[in-house]
Amino acid sequence: MIPLTILMITSELLSNLPPEFSKDLVPEIHNLLTESKKTIVVLDDSPTGTQSVFDVPVITDLDPTTIRDAIDEAPPILFLLTNSHTLTAEQTSTLHQTLGDLLKEFQEDIIVISRSDSPLTGHFPLETDTLHHALGIAEAPTLIIPFCATQQHLTIDNTTYQIEDEGKTATPLNHPPLDTPESLSLADLRSGDITAKLAALPPSSNCLVNAASLADLNVLTLALLKSNRRFVIRAGSSFTQSLAGIVSRPSLTPWQMQDLEPNPNGGLIIIGSHSPQTADQLNHLLKNAPDITPIKLSAPDILNDTFNLERATLDTQTAITSGKTAVLFTSRDHSDEEEPSPINAKTKTISQALSNLVRAIDARPSFIIAKGRTTSTDLATHALGVKQAMALGQILPGVPVWTIGNQTLHPGLAYIIFPGSTGPTDALTQAHQKLTS
Q: pLDDT tens, 304-326?
């Protein structure tokens, strides 16, 4: 394994790889899944997991009756938003035990994926360990699949890299320790047949899957669908696309995201993420987008309970009803470094304030962009009251668009979930241009 301190040049990293398996396996994968009549059930720890699929139902209301009804409709894919990145270890263990007990009723008709932003972070291996026992498959190997095309995560020689600097450099990412580590190499996958490798995995083992393309994942998927063995899967969003036999589609066009009825109001952009990439994207938007009204909210005021919600709501409402896009963002003058995981108190307080503000706005925006994992989750569930949605596709690569359900504050509205560390510097500006063109 390459030391994590080394920054790789991407061309050097990829130069000596074996060639990809050349046969297009997607049609065969799609046919096998269709014939099996199985539903892929994705337990998603945040709304960003839909960044590689389209026309897929999403359930945020985890009531057992709601889930049973959704599975009974037998969709090819079903996302259940667990929001587990905000939960404590005890809370996520209880939740996954409950979900596992319920899903066990359907285990002959479903394939379960535990999806995380980065497959080896979050509550791992707690969530997969819980599913092992709840689903009654304690002996099943766990497949760990970090590859994610939209986040540019590649796994080569058992090291996962983040491709950065417009594809020029590759930064190794940390892997937490794994018990009894096994692996499927790129050479294994690019041979085109890993049936024997899957069959030989020891019971209850953890297996890291190397992959540098969707074609690599498709070799794994085909072998899984042909295997009679049960597996527990922890994966990034690209694996859902592979397992479902979905071909990549172009980004959504503006007309696909418009209100059915004409809406003269402007849009609403809420920036919760404080990543450096988000800061660059916000600054680009503020400098280059016409017809926006920036509304900066004081983070110290929010944290000290001196925030004027009524004033901020009025400013936002005025901007929207004038036809401009209101851009809400908090001052970048607080630190979360000493706060405990999984989600710190400051982040929670600020996210709650943003939710209260959005809920207080009477005017229907023409769209909503939520920037950041926690922000997009809280705005969907707490501010807008989303219980069910349809993931339409992506406005830009890796940026999913939902149409939110009829029971929400703004039924049928386009809700754009913009991950904090996705896209180039002008990505937020591009999304705004699409929505306002």
A: 989 999 999 999 999 999 999 99
